[in-house]
Each structure stands twice: as C-alpha cells, then as structure tokens.
Amino acid sequence: MSMFCFQCQEAMNCVGCNKEVGACGKKASTANLQDILVHYLKNIALEGQMASTFNKDHSIFIMEALFATITNANFDDEAITNLINTAKTKLKKVCPENGVGVLSTENEDERSLRELLIYGLKGIAAYAHHAYVLGYERENIYNFMNNALISTTKNLGVDALVGMVMQAGEIAVETMALLDKANTERFGNPEITKVNIGVRNNPAILISGHDLKDMEQLLEQTAGTGVDVYTHSEMLPANYYPKFKKYNHFVGNYGSSWWNQHKEFDSFNGPILMTTNCITPVRKSYQSRIYTTGVVGYPGVKHIHEKNGKKDFSEIIHQAKRLNPPTEIEKGEIIGGFAHHQVLKLADKIVEAVKSGAIKKFIVMAGCDGRQTNRNYFTEVASKLPKDAVILTAGCAKYRYNKLSLGEIGGIPRVLDAGQCNDSYSLAVIALKLKEVFGLKDINELPISYDIAWYEQKAVTVLLALLHLGVKGIRLGPTLPAFLSPNVVKVLVEKFNIKPIGDVEQDIQEMMA
Known about the structure:
This protein has 513 residues and is an alpha/beta fold. The chain has three domains: 12-186, Substrate Binding Domain Of Dnak, Chain:A, Domain 2, CATH 1.20.1270; 193-322, Rossmann fold (3-Layer(aba) Sandwich), CATH 3.40.50; 355-512, 3-Layer(aba) Sandwich (Rossmann fold). The chain has helices at 28-51, 56-68, 77-89, 108-132, 139-151, 158-187, 212-222, 242-245, 261-268, 284-287, 314-322, 340-345, 347-356, 376-384, 424-437, 457-468, 486-496, 504-512; strands at residues 193-196, 204-208, 228-232, 250-253, 272-274, 290-293, 302-304, 306-307, 310-311, 333-336, 361-364, 389-393, 408-409, 412-413, 415-417, 448-453, 475-477, 499-500. Helix 5 packs antiparallel against helix 6. The longest helix has 30 residues, at 158-187. The protein starts with 27 loop residues before the first helix and ends with a helix.
C-alpha cells in the first residue's frame, strides 16, 4: 500500500486510507512524512527522558509538530520535511527512519490503544498551542505529552495503556480549561450574540480556523481600511467575544462548515486566511487569494509567518481592496455565545424550567461536522426532538442545525452554542454546575444525553475528556473510529456505555427517556 492512515472519521471503508490519496485529499507522500515526523518526536521525548531534565524548547516543538499532523492542517510536503529536519537538529543522535523508536506488536488491542493515545495527544497539542500563543502554558501538560509519546514505544500492556488513555482525558480537561482562561482573560467572556449571516457591499476578508490571536491581529490591521472581516466555520464564535465587538468592520459569519469551503470560498470573492486545521485541497479558482498561517500549509499557497510575535497581513488587505465584495448566499441571523459564564447567569431560569417540566432534557450535540451524507442524522435529530428538549452544542457540528427555526423555551433558545470544539469544556462546566444545583452525586443522573459527532483528533480529545469526567452513554458517530479494535470498543461499551448512532426515531426515544 502507498500509505495507511485511519486517524479521522473518513477512513476509507471504516478501515483506513491506503491509496495514493486519502479521503481528506492528503497525498501518500504527506501521510508518510507525517508518520516519520511523529517517529522523530518520540525520539526527542525519549532523549529528554534519558537526560532527566525538562527542555521547554523541545516540548514546544513537539506540541507544534503534533498539531501540524492533525487531519486537514498541513498538506505541504516541504513544510513537513522542514519540521523533520528541525527535529533532527534537536536530537543528539539522529535515528534512522526505518523503525527505530517505533514499537511493533501483534497485539491489535495494544496497537489500538497506542493510536487512541497518539490521536488524543494531537488534540491536546492543538488546544495547548492555542493557549500558548496567548501566553498561557503549563509544564505538566508538556510533560504529559512527552511521557505519553514515550509510552507508545514500550511494551506496557493493555491495562497500563488504558491508564495512559484515561490520563490523557484528565490532561485534556486541564488543557481546555487553560485555553478557556486564556481566551476569556484576553477577549472577555462570550456574550449572547445575534450574528449576521448576510453581507455588506464592501471588500472583505474571510478568516477560518480557530486561532483567536490571528483574529485579533487581523481586526487590528484592517481597522480604518474600508475592508470588512467575516468569520467562517469554526471561527464563528469569535463573534461572541466582547473585545472583537468593538470593531465596526467585523460584519458577521459567512457560510457554514469546513467541508463547504470550495463553493463558499468561490462566492466570497475576497481573500481567505486559514489559521488552523480545516483547510481542504485548494481549488485553482481561489488559489491566488487564499493564505495559510501557523501550522497550516498547502503547496502553492502563500504562507504568512510570524515575526517577533506578530503577523503582517498587509498583503491580504491590499488584495482585498482590489477584489469584489462577497456574493450574498443567505440572509438573517444566528444566535450564540452560550459559554459557561453566560449560561450560569441563566442558571436560575434554567433550573426553574427543568423543575416545572418546561425543559425535559438537554441533548449535547457537540463535535465535528463532515461531508458524509449520513451526518444528516444530526439534522434530523435536531428537527424531530420534542419541543421540551434543549440542544447544547460546540464545534462545527452545529452547522447541521444552528440555522433551523427551533424556537425557544421561556426565552431560552433551544440551541445553546458554547463556541468552538475546545469550548466543549463549557458544556462540562455547565453539567457539573447543574449537578451541584440539583444536589446530585453523579453527573449521569442529570437530564442530559450525549450525541457526539466526530471527525478528527481534537474530537477524540473531547471524547477522552468526557470519559475522564465519568460521562456515560455517549452516542458517537456517524461511524465508530476505525483505529479502535473490537476488544477496545468492547471495553468502552462495558465501562462507559459508548454506542454508535443508530435509527433517528429510536435514538430520540432513548434520549428523552
């Protein structure tokens, strides 16, 4: 086979991509280079362990490099090769690329758990990096990433690997809490916000991905230029932060989920800035006006590098002024900004609605969107849920239902959007607070059901975080991860009652029971 990759939900035939090009559009050469990069990261961690000293520079590099290997982050062989070469400079003894430091085993359950751990690490690295660029970091998070990488090179056995995976869930919660602190202290607590989804007749820039520091710098540099700024996909929640609202050229959100970017980038007309993962193979029709930054990379696309902590977006701004305004594709508003700080302000109202029976159930429908047609399941569930159910969401999965007219319950919208995928932490905080308010001993006693969509490794991290918090009965879909062996799935089912999504009507009955 040319490659083997099964780290995302699109793994071909729910087994793995093994041709010249993967389902995500990643070439075999890129996939193989990313595997080599992870191999070197393991060896950097091993050398650090032997030195018995914490090397912050090496730890930061491991974090950034892991982030670069997430699905739909970097398609550029040259960029990955540069990371490999940098990794070699950090090693006292450069290891060959033919398997040294990579442990093989015939035990498929151990392989499965190692992969689950690696993919959880990639998500942790992504969230830790978002916090890091805002000046927030913790040594124990770095240490865990290093130790977890090392653990994948040893014969630990199934029980010890399960322990490492559960510890990854614990660190995932801590990392998302750190990122929440970084975002809110820098940009304020998200507020209930009606976000415009129409357009104005001005030249504009579209910003996609997750990096709020890039968002901040772009708004600062476009102020007073006559160029509007719109968010796309996972950048939508930037509209909820008070610090960004002061910019009157910050217009709203354009389009929907990442997988629709081909047609939405075409109709936007202006330049696009991709700040993190979520880029798809770039079409010629907009290749001359799309830019990457941070860990993102694509062959033939201009990359904006950081210098002394800042990025210069002047080239993008100048290009925007020469191009047509966006073509309007829809009108109206969507409402969001229901992160934990805002929802807890409504706690009395929510508790009263639950006690009165006006709200019977909360359905957590968070996670990632994707292009497979069976993801219509989430739209059907949202549209067919009884009127006394409220949806709690975070991540781009919300685009399956956040523009439906689902109404309110006593002034509480039936879709409460907490933000990006990393803001799934907010949903956990809300659940834990409700447990306290209702005087319950177990989070699973709450009237909450979990229906999680996954696509890439950050969603794996969110799943591990929920498992660490003791959440049971999660429905996961549209398919279960291909990298989980039958026995590992069995353990997850027996211990946490994880189940695949199924028939819409039957699942709704179970959710509302």
